[in-house]
Structure formats: C-alpha cells, structure tokens
Design brief:
Distance between the termini of chain A: 56 Å
Largest sheet of chain A: none
Number of strands of chain B: 2
Low-confidence stretches of chain B: none
Shape of chain B: globular
Number of helices of chain A: 3
CATH topology of chain A: Helix Hairpins
CATH class of chain A: Mainly Alpha
Distance between the termini of chain B: 85 Å
Number of strands of chain A: 0
Mean pLDDT of chain B: 86
Number of helices of chain B: 27
Low-confidence stretches of chain A: none
Helix content of chain B: over 70%
Radius of gyration of chain B: 30 Å
Largest sheet of chain B: 2 strands, antiparallel
Order of helices and strands of chain A: HHH
CATH architecture of chain A: Orthogonal Bundle
Structural class of chain B: mainly alpha
Number of domains of chain A: 1
Strand content of chain B: under 5%
Oligomer: heterodimer
Order of helices and strands of chain B: HHEEHHHHHHHHHHHHHHHHHHHHHHHHH
Radius of gyration of chain A: 17 Å
Largest interface: A-B, 13 and 12 residues
Chain lengths: 102, 631
C-alpha cells in the first residue's frame, strides 16, 4: 500500500502544529520546550521522507539521516544546558531566564 | 645483493630509530654510543659485501612507495660504480666520524639526540645516493636537509646557533624548489621519474628543454652544495658540533648537489649551456671560497670556506664533463676534509673551545698526535705533489684544459690561481695554529691542556693515510692506469684522455703553483715572521681583507636585497593589512552589531516564551502572505 503524499503532508502539518503549540504554551518547563522542538523537527523529517518517496529520489532520506544526527547532537548539548540552568536558579521555568535582555 | 643493499640503508635508519626511542632512559650511554657506531660500520661491511659481489649495475626493488595512476615511484635502489664508490666512502668516513664523536661529545648531556640524528643523517644520504628514481632521491635530499638543520642548531640554547640552522634550511630550500620543479616537469615530459630511464631519453626533447631542466638542477645543486650565489649558509653552519661539520662538509650533505649533477649528466650534459653554467659556477665558487679562506681568523670558518672552494672544483670538473675526475676529487676531498675537521675538533677541544687561530700557537709540541695528521690533511688540501689532493685536483684542471677554447681556458687559469690561494691559506692555517710558541696568557702555556680522548686522535690516522696515499686509487695514465678510472668509466662514455706529455706538463705547472703558494705562506708566516705578522693582523681588518673576511659582504647584500624588503613587507602586511584592515573591520562590525543588539534588547522584556510567540507569529504571517501570493 502506498501512502499518498498529501496524507503525509497533512500528518506532518498536524505534528508541526502540535510541536509549535507545545513550544509556545508549555513555558513552565524548558524540557517540554525542547520536546516541542524535536516534534517539529520530526515533522520536517517526515516531509523530507515523504517527498523522497514520492519522487523516488534518495536525497530526502539522506537529509532525514543528517537531521537525526544533528538532532542527537543538539539534544545532548541542550540537556547539558538544562542541567546547568537548573543548577543556577533551581528552576526550569523558561520565563525565569531573562538575562538576554541586558 | 638485495640483502646487502637493504642492510646498507636500514642499519643506520634502525640505529637512529632505536636510539631515539630507547636511548637515554632504557639504554646506558655506552650502549647508545656503541649502537650508533656499530650500525654505521655494519653498513660499511654491507657495502663491502656489495662491492665484493658486484659485477654489473643492478636495480633492486624493495617495495612500492608512491603509486597513483601512471605515476610510480617505488623504493628502488640502483647500484653502479658511482653510487658504490660513494657509498663506500660515506660509510667509511661517517664510521670514523661517529667513533670520533664518541670522544668529542663525551660531556654532552643530549648525546641521544646527537647520535640518533647523526645516524639518520647517514641513512638519508645513503637513500639519496642509492635512489633509482628522483622522488626517492628527493626523499633522501630532504632528509639530509632536515638532519643538517637539526644538527647545525644542535646547541639550540644559543640563539645564533638556532639561527644558523634555520639559515641553512631556508637557503637550501631555495635550491630545492629547482629540483622539485625539475622532477615534476620531467615526469610530465617523459612520463617517468626513473633516473636510468630519464638518462637514456634525453634525445626525445629539444635542446632548449634540456637546458632549462639542467639549469633547474644546477639551482638545486647550488643550494645543497653551497655554490655561488647560495653559499651563504655554509660558513654559518659551523655553529654545529665539529663532528657534524665534518659529516656535513666531508662525507654527506654538500656533495649531494655535485652527485645529482653527476647522476643526471647523461641527460643534462648534452646542453653546452648547462655545462658552461656548471663550470662557471664551479670556478667562481672555487675562487670565492679560496679568497675568503685567506683572511679568516676562525679555524672552522677557514675550513668551511675551503669546503666551498673545493666543491667548486668538483662542479668545475662536472662542467668540463670529467665525471671520473670529479668523483675522484669528491672522494679524496672527503678524506682530507674530514681529517682536517676532526683535527680542528681536537685542536678546539685541547684549547678549551677556543676557535680563534690568532690565540693559538705551538700546538705541534702539545698535541703531536693531532699535528701530524692535520699537516697531512693540509698538504693534501694545498695540493703538494704526490699527495692524493694533488692528483685529484690536477685531474679536474687537466679535464678543463682539455676542453680548450677561450672560455674553458679562462676557467683553467681561474682554477690555477685558486690552487695557488688554496696552498697559501692551507699552509697559513697550519703555521699559525701549530708553529711558534704557545701564547703566554693561555692556560696551555701553564701546562693545563685538556687531555684529548685517545679515540679522537686515533680516528684521524686512517683518514690521513687515505688522504695522502689516495692518489694511488687513480694514478695518471703514464704511471699505469687508475683503478677508479677504469672502474668508473662506463662503456660508451668517452671522457677524453690527455696526451701523456701534456698531462705531465700540466701536473708540473700545478706542482709549481702549489710550491709557490706554500713558499708564499712560509715567507709571510714562517719562523720569526709569524709573531710580527700576527701582531699586524690582529688589528680589526680593513679594506680588502675586511671585504674578504665578511665573505665578499654577500650576507650584507642579501640582507639589503631580500631580508629587509621582506621584513618591511611583512611588517606592512602584519600591522596594516592584517591588524589594521582585516582585524579592525571585523572588530568594528562586531561592535556595531553588539550595540544594535543592546538597543533592541532594551525594548523587549527578555522572556523566551514571548520571543517564541513573536517568532511563530512572524513565520505565520510570512507563510500566509506567500500562500496568498501563490494561490
């Protein structure tokens, strides 16, 4: 059975929207924000794979692999940052960190 | 044969590596020294074995090295009379130098580095000599260059020594550019880098191309063999320990350039422009070196300039097409110059590291074991009749005479004048250092001379014997035939032979010139005149002698022509272009963005969540607009 491209795109759009909402709404926890970003990235990856399948070109899948590698690197860095932030202020609430302003 | 050739190169290499890795910590000092000497003598034994079983030129492939598409440069060794005789000389002389170095470096703490580098030096030189293809030769060539750099600057704590090492490295590098270009170009032209193949393919190319190739190789030889105009590194290279000077000057490095030209002579020798250029370089260098050596006060600098001069003779011989005579002089020079350097090392040790000959004197009584071998070396250098140096130098001059014509005739007379000057400075050196009395203010006069290690004086004797009787290796035609001559001359080569009468006449002239030089030196420095002459010359040099003392002021000229413009340019590039333009531009730009960021930052409240909402809203706006436009 072949999934049509449109279905894949719709699924990806829904996923992306969910990720975005998660990022925007769940401000009391940095980790949830990161999870939201991951979901959005996965949605993008899904579009790549879907396109690759639809046009029969491998490039999209290669991109998906690269995104995976990049994501794993990014997550490991981000988690380290979270640990560090928690140590500094004893909280993971996003809005507590406002030093960027100055 | 394959085993012998492998051993010749691998033994010194192995010795160097083992000493580098294990020496000092795991091996006791005696063992390090023993290993360093043993591998060289082992290599000599292997060379003897190769010589004993030698019948015809052989090519041995040991393994593949560089191979890409149709470019191939395997580890291939080539043994023919030229490389065999040079290998014998190198392993023998270097073996003696190693033994001598054990005595000379007796008190030096970093002996491991010294012996390891000395071994690697020999290994690199043997690779250079035995290489069958040019990239392999280049490997040895650069290996020799690196080891000489490290050894000249061996006592690197003194800045001037380190500078001398760098100077040697950089100046020889200029020549190496020539060799590099020549190798790549030859591969492009002939599709091969094998020396034997290249030498038989010269007729394929127009003479102009051959001339260009020959001139490039001459440039390489100029750098390595310290020929005019790239000779400036060699006098400074005296900063290294004396055994190193002996090894660089006598046996290994500086002969590499001459060897390259001899090796490639069948290819480049067909161009008369190239041979003329080689000959004139040689003659000019010989004259330059001899005149500079005439006034030097530093014992080792005299010998350094004399090396430049003698290598010039070899180049002159190559330029005249006399490969055999040139090889003979190369070997003979290796013996007596190693002897002179090692003798100078003995003198310097005995004088507590004093190198100024004007503060020496009377050493013939204090260190007779050094005096006699040193005298033997000096008479060889002066070309006193019947010594080896006489025959070898005469062979070259005879070959130049044989070429005839105005050009080579002039070069012959330059060579003859140089021979005269050579005799003068050689004898001057001996008279000032060994004759007369010990200077009163020196510790030697109070009987406190440093005892020389026996081993140092013993290693002089074989060299003295070879230097003085080396003429037997290659007797002139009228005294029976030369061993070396018949060994080296390949079938099909037609090096001209002088008629016996002419040869005798030329040797008579050379003998007269040598004797005249010696008597001139004697009349200036002999007997009681020595003291007055020393008093006269102790004053700072002026006029022509100052000019000669500073090596024709070539260093100052190069400083003015190259070093200062280079420094000026780099200071502009550094302070104006790099720091002024590039760095400042970046700094200012960054500062600008920083200020802009602060300005923006002051307008937000700094909450990440709000920024995210803003970003999402902006993205939604843009996508919405795009969708509006597209649909």
């Amino acid at each position: 059975m072949i999934v049509p491209l449109a279905h894949v795109l719709v699924l990806a759009a829904v996923l992306f929207g969910l990720g975005l909402v998660c990022t925007l709404v769940w401000r009391s926890n940095v980790i949830m924000l990161l999870i939201g970003i991951e979901i959005m990235l996965n949605a993008a990856m899904l579009v790549f794979v879907g396109g690759s399948n639809h046009w029969g070109v491998a490039d999209g899948q290669v991109f998906a692999l690269i995104i995976m590698a990049m994501t794993s690197a990014e997550v490991s860095l981000a988690l380290a940052l979270v640990v560090y932030l928690h140590r500094r202020k004893n909280t993971v609430n996003v809005d507590e960190f406002r030093e960027l302003k100055d | 044969m394959k085993l012998y050739l492998e051993l010749i190169i691998l033994l010194p290499l192995l010795g160097g590596i083992v000493n580098l890795l294990l020496g000092g910590r795991l091996l006791p000092r005696r063992l390090t020294e023993l290993l360093a000497c043993a591998v060289i003598w082992g290599s000599f034994a292997a060379t003897l074995g190769a010589a004993a079983s030698y019948t015809a030129p052989v090519t041995v492939e040991l393994g593949s090295w560089l191979a890409a598409f149709d470019f191939k440069a395997p580890f291939t060794l080539y043994l023919d009379p030229l490389s065999l005789s040079l290998c014998l000389m190198i392993t023998f002389v270097c073996g003696l130098i190693h033994i001598y170095a054990v005595g000379y470096m007796k008190d030096d703490p970093s002996f491991v580095r010294f012996f390891a580098l000395l071994n690697l030096f020999v290994a690199a030189m043997l690779v250079l000599i035995l290489a069958e293809n040019l990239p392999l030769l280049y490997l040895g060539w650069e290996g020799v260059g690196f080891c000489s750099y490290a050894l000249i600057g061996f006592w690197y704590r003194k800045p001037e020594n380190a500078t001398a090492g760098r100077k040697a490295f950089i100046v020889t590098r200029i020549g190496d550019i020539g060799l590099g270009i020549a190798i790549v170009w030859m591969f492009q032209l002939f599709g091969s880098v094998s020396i034997t193949k290249l030498n038989s393919m010269g007729y394929l190319m127009p003479i102009g191309v051959i001339t260009a190739l020959g001139l490039l190789m001459l440039l390489a030889a100029m750098g390595k063999s310290a020929q005019v105009p790239l000779m400036v590194w060699l006098p400074d290279a005296m900063a290294g320990p004396t055994p190193v000077s002996a090894q660089i000057h006598a046996a290994t490095m500086v002969t590499a350039g001459v060897y390259l030209l001899m090796r490639m002579f069948p290819l480049i020798g067909v161009s008369p422009t190239v041979t003329a250029a080689i000959a004139i370089t040689g003659a000019l260098t010989a004259f330059y070196g001899a005149t500079c050596a005439l006034v030097q006060r530093d014992l080792k600098r005299i010998l350094a300039y004399s090396t430049i001069s003698q290598i010039g003779y070899m180049m002159l011989g190559v330029g005249a097409g006399a490969i055999t005579a040139s090889t003979f002089h190369l070997l003979e020079h290796a013996f007596f110059k190693a002897l002179l350097f090692l003798g100078a090392g003995c003198v310097i040790t005995a004088m507590h590291h004093e190198q100024d000959i004007f503060r020496m004197g009377g050493l013939r009584r204090t260190i007779p074991g050094t005096f006699w071998p040193f005298l033997a070396g000096a008479v060889c250098l002066a070309g006193v009749p019947l010594t080896g140096g006489f025959f070898s130098k005469d062979g070259i001059l005879g070959a130049v005479w044989l070429k005839g014509g105005g050009f080579y005739g002039t070069l012959y007379f330059v060579g003859l004048i140089t021979a005269f000057i050579t005799a003068v400075y050689a004898i001057r050196m001996v008279l000032i250092v060994f004759a007369g009395e010990v200077p009163l203010n020196h510790s030697l006069s109070k009987g406190e001379g440093k005892p020389l290690p026996r081993i140092m004086e013993w290693s002089l004797i074989p060299l003295a014997v070879l230097g003085v009787f080396g003429g037997l290796l290659n007797l002139p035609e009228y005294l029976g035939s030369g061993v070396l001559n018949s060994f080296l001359s390949q079938p099909g080569s037609h090096e001209g032979m002088l008629p016996h009468a002419t040869e005798l006449l030329l040797q008579g002239v050379a003998a007269v010139v040598a004797v005249a030089g010696i008597s001139t030196a004697w009349f200036r420095y002999g007997g009681d005149r020595r003291q007055q002459r020393l008093a006269l010359e102790s004053a700072p040099a002026r006029g022509i002698s100052a000019f000669l003392m500073e090596g024709w002021r070539v260093d100052a000229l190069y400083d003015f022509m190259f070093v200062r413009p280079y420094k000026w340019l780099s200071s502009i590039l550094w302070q104006w272009v790099d720091e002024g333009c590039i760095d400042d531009t970046l700094d200012r730009t960054a500062a600008l963005f920083g200020r802009f960021g602060h300005w923006i930052g002051a307008r937000g409240d700094g909450r990440v969540s709000r920024s995210l909402i803003g970003m999402a809203a902006g993205a939604a706006l843009m996508i919405g607009w795009l969708a509006w436009v597209m649909l």
